[in-house]
Amino acid sequence: MLTVMGATMTDSTARDEAAGSSQGERTAGPYQCDLIDGEAGIVTHVIDGDTLVLDDHLEVRLVGMQAPKLPLGRPGFVAWPLSTEAKASLETLALGQAAQLRYGGTRRDRYSRALAHVTILPEGGEPIWVQQAMLAQGLARVYSFADNRQCVGALMNVERAARNSGLGLWRDPYYAIRPAADPALVTRHDVYDLVEGRVISVGERGPIAYLDFGRDWSTDFTAVLTTEAITALAESGIAVETLRGQRVRLRGWIESHGGPSMRVTHPEQLELLDQW
Fold it and tell me: Which of 153, 170, 187 corresponds to the end of one domain?
């Protein structure tokens, strides 16, 4: 049995949710959503669309999602589209409300922020899973880490529904899913993107694997899979070499090493778009 926000689901229900509304699409990682209760308090401040503060001064980063970013005093940083709208939405959901933190992985980041799923407990109302609510409005994208992978399957379904409906940031070209063959990817260095295409070839060099999306591996888009990602994929029943010829969608930060590339550290960065 799996527990999400205090609700109990059977394993078959969990698998159905993980499968998503689009036939043939699924995350490469296993469906897991098992969270442990942590701190509780009143939300006294909202910093941006994915960060809030409790009345004991604990700063909480909403793990599992990424809202459009505000500058927050960073010199030269340009606000992402819809960043003010995302902050306003989180304020509406959470400010002044009782909140329960729930953990499914690493609990603190290097800035001592709590990395938590957050449930708002409105007086006399139904609990609200904040990550789910922000994604449902199209004001965030799923964003996971190798040490925080719980509930990504459920959140991906919510994101997919918002995207298919063209809600929030999904109407803005800045957040469009990029074709792997798009030459403009090389200009998006250090940008968090979703990139979609067919894997032309799979190569291995020592403990690293490469998914090539073009014939020229030195200039075309490439996904670089770490040893940890390869191992986790294998544990999910996916051998890296079987990805050759498959359509996939990747999410992560664009890097530039000759051509554009993306580092993949865990399976939840990878969606399988063909029927498996």
Answer: 170
